[in-house]
């Protein structure tokens, strides 16, 4: 599963450097110089990760974060800023940012954060595939007739507000 990344950064050299580094890692990365254009790109095709600068013309990174989280809640967001403060970091995290990086940033550190997002997305994908493979009915794994009988009993009381203790082999 490839990670699709959108970089929103108004400094052209930083934008070019980031998209190149992400591409060299095998990521599908594109970029825009402002938040308004980035919102438009998210409407054309979904992205797994948005890396956004806080200070941009037109729409700043926090407004972009709010727009993307409202329209595409599954998109992870990393905020990057040269004007970092504890208050802005806390604000970004409260608004739904996955992480916060101050500039000048260590590229290896940012790429590690991207790898963590990729791993999280892979695990979410694997979890959904496993749920589908199990039929989505219950979280148990087993095929014997006795086990199926227990699973059916658990399923029959699933919506109730009671405590159940299963014991034995």
Short description:
This protein has helices at 12-24, 35-44, 61-71, 86-94, 107-133, 145-156; strands at residues 4-8, 28-32, 49-53, 76-81, 99-102. Helices cover 49% and strands 15% of the residues.
> What can be said about the biggest beta sheet?
5 strands, parallel
Global structural class: alpha/beta
Q: How many strand elements? A: 5
Unreliable runs, pLDDT <50, ≥5 residues? none
Rg calc = 21 Å
Number of helices: 6
What is the string of SSEs from the N terminus onward?
A: EHEHEHEHEHH
Strand order of the largest sheet: 2-1-3-4-5
State the end-to-end distance.
Answer: 38 Å
Specify the overall morphology.
elongated
Overview of this structure, please?
This protein has 169 residues and is α/β, with parallel strands linked by helices. Helix content is 49%, strand content 15%. It has six helices and five strands. The protein has helices at residues 12-24, 35-44, 61-71, 86-94, 107-133, 145-156, and strands spanning 4-8, 28-32, 49-53, 76-81, 99-102. A five-stranded parallel beta sheet has the order 2-1-3-4-5, sandwiched between helices. Strand 1, helix 1 and strand 2 (28-32) form a beta-alpha-beta unit. Helix 2 packs parallel to helix 3 (61-71). The mean pLDDT is 84.
Topology:
Layout: E1 4-8, H1 12-24, E2 28-32, H2 35-44, E3 49-53, H3 61-71, E4 76-81, H4 86-94, E5 99-102, H5 107-133, H6 145-156
Parallel strand pairs: 1-2, 1-3, 3-4, 4-5
Helix pairs in contact: 2-3
Short descriptors:
169 residues; 5 strands; 5-stranded parallel sheet; alpha/beta
């Amino acid at each position: 599963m490839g990670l699709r990344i959108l970089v929103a950064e108004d400094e052209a050299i930083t934008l070019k450097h980031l998209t190149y580094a992400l591409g060299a890692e095998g990521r599908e990365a594109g970029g825009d110089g402002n938040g308004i254009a980035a919102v438009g790109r998210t409407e054309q095709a979904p992205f797994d990760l948005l890396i956004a600068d806080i200070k941009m013309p037109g729409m700043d990174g926090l407004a972009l974060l709010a727009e993307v989280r409202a329209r595409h809640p599954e998109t992870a967001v990393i905020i990057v800023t040269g004007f970092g403060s504890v208050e802005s970091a806390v604000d970004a995290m409260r608004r739904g940012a996955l992480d916060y990086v101050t500039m000048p940033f260590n590229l290896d550190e940012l790429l590690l954060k991207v790898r963590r997002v990729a791993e999280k997305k892979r695990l979410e994908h694997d979890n959904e595939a496993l749920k589908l493979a199990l039929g989505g009915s219950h979280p148990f794994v087993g095929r014997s007739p006795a086990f199926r009988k227990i699973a059916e009993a658990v399923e029959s009381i699933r919506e109730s507000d009671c405590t159940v203790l299963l014991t034995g082999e």
